[in-house]
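Model: Ready when you are.
Researcher: Fold this.
Model:
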Amino acid sequence: MQLENFDYDLPEELIAQHPSERRDHSRMMVVNRRTENIIHDYFFNLPEYLKEGDVLVINDSKVIPARLIGKKETGGSIEMLLLSKKSNESVQSSTWEVLLKPAKRVQIGTRIFFENHCEAVINDRIYNKIWVITFKANMNFDRFLNQYGSAPLPPYIKRKKDTTARDIDRDRYQTIYAKAPGSVAAPTAGLHFSNDVLKALEKKGVHIASLTLHVGYGTFLPIETDHVESHVMEKEYFEISKETSDIINKAENVIAVGTTSTRAIESVTDGNGNINPSSSHSDLFIYPGYRFKRVNSLVTNFHLPKSSLFLLVCAFAGKELMHKVYLQAIEHQYRFYSYGDCMLIL
């Protein structure tokens, strides 16, 4: 299967640079997979499309403020994205795998300095721009990160020195139900939910179940193979509780919020459509030809061309229908990607 078949042209001005003024006022395209009927609506009307007894599965992973700016001993600035924690030497010292930019002139032993007398030393290089770094702060490192780190926005969202936008990002690049720290990218389909929408869903009798999948840097990485089948997904940690698995197993209709919830559910579903409580890592790659075992409907944003996320929605709804949907989204000036609008695929 050729990757080029999953490309499309997107006008740059449709890439959302900021969130909608109100979370639940983003636009929502409702797509029926069977009839191919398309409705243009708003997210605050989501409860109208679900019914009593449906189960909505959300990802409660919390985005950590993983982006830091430091200076080398030469005075040059260096940007880093914390990817995954390797160990805690103490409450003030922590070792991480990080992505460095620029990384051309750094080497093992390079020291990097941050605000409030925090410093780091490069211990090892894993590959490309990813290194192992130990941080030492004069306060609890988690508190340092929360105070001086910023939201790890994807590279297509530009910020420069706009501190007001950065403050907004700390709040809006996070779901309102996030509680388990660990993601370096937001599960963006969940960004549209407000307390009003959640209350309306519960009032209608829709059950809301949560799982945790920590979104890794792999969500930003392009597929670099010409053949789809040759791509290997980065592993991401997930947890599904007994309470959540019981709720899902009793459901007739499961609506996954985002590709992250979808991958977690499908990773642990057996041949009978049942799931068991689990704590594991998933590298499940869903692309056309995959048979979904438990997810019946999907809330998702509009994704980058030739990305693993776009391939997943093509697998769920069909490549031809998704190309038709994306053309309509462009024609109707929907906002794309992380801060963009969404669709409900039924």
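Researcher: Now this one.
Model:
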Amino acid sequence: MTDARRGLPSVGGLLESDSVRALLASAPRTAVAAAVRIAIDRARQDPRSAPRNGDEWAEAVRGALAARERLSLRPVFNATGIVLHTNLGRAPLPDVALAAIRDVATGYSNLEYDLDRGERGSRYAHCVEALCELTEAEDAIVVNNCAAALVLALNTLAEGRDAIVSRGELIEIGGGFRVPDIMAKSGARLVEVGTTNRTRVADYLAAIAEQTAAIVKVHLSNFAMAGFVADVSLAELAALGRERGVAVLYDFGSGLLINLEPYGLAGEPTARDAVRTGATLVVMSGDKLLGGPQAGIIVGAREAIARLRANPLTRALRVDKLTIAALGATLALYRDQSRAVVEVPALAMLTAPVAHVRKRAERLRGRLAARGIDATVTDTEAGVGGGAFPTARIPSAAVALGASDTAATEQRLRRAGTPVITRTAGGVVLIDLRSIPEREDESLADTVLAALA
């Protein structure tokens, strides 16, 4: 039998063909040659789909060339219904944050220059005032993510000494990373107390010794326990820490700055609530419910923050000017909470009335139906994501695409010019509008139409 792959052209042969040689006018020979190799390799792997003539080979090479030039990290439409989707970059930034990044990135800035005194300043100063105002903390510092914030806090306050933590709070976070492993890298010695489902004040009291430097409380952000359970509140631990002269660190996680109970999302504490308990340090994320860039925010006692600033690890974990610009602009929105709920995309998506989400879904369905695409609007349940409000189910609406082959439909959307990331349930592909910022509605419709045409 003849193997079809024996008939594939050579790299040199394709490069000398008229149809492929024309590509050299717009791209370097090395780039075209690499694209030719990719096209041939694809044909070798699937001979049935191999190009059949010169024009088809030129098109295959052109496609490979475009793919090579396309940036790997690119925008997608998050139509999954999970608002803070870690795999999709978590919180979209507010417009003011994007503008702040552009302003700072296009030239020089006073990142570490004090304009009033005319001398070197601190990059952290640009966010400290707003963080202290919004959380009522004495001082603040920003590093590159929440895990880094926890490591820095423990390394500073408890390196070589004991840090007490409840067994019920030794959780695993995204990517398979586990809080106890992260804590151990700080150089602190973990002392586990209580059991998985029940920990009492007496357990902490029994564990406090001369070598105890800190008590750590970890917010159960990505799961919930029910039934025969008991834990110790942060306020109780803060009081115990003051009584015994031990620092209390709270891994708060979500970064929530305003109460979302009026919008049906209850059970998540705010950063101000945490600080008011008297915890020594509170660490949280900038790109979850705060709705800003990835950052690890630490707020708390002035003396403890001063020690963090003096730790050499702070230099290794520091954030760049773009993060500082985006975080500062996002925090400024929170000075008017009603404005924050509208202009911080994560909050706007989470708090939008379901009737409004359904109306947007109807508009998308109408555009698809006008082009003969089988689509209906269906009620769904969305989620917060990002390890926040783990049990919350938010009423939402999605456009359901009826198709004989849902896998093929999902793939076509995922491979669109701007990929549309969906979910499949009940034999249909769902485009959930809850996790799509409203400013993207028109471009989403255009992309879906092009992908399914």
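Researcher: Key takeaway?
Model: The chain has a mean pLDDT of 91.
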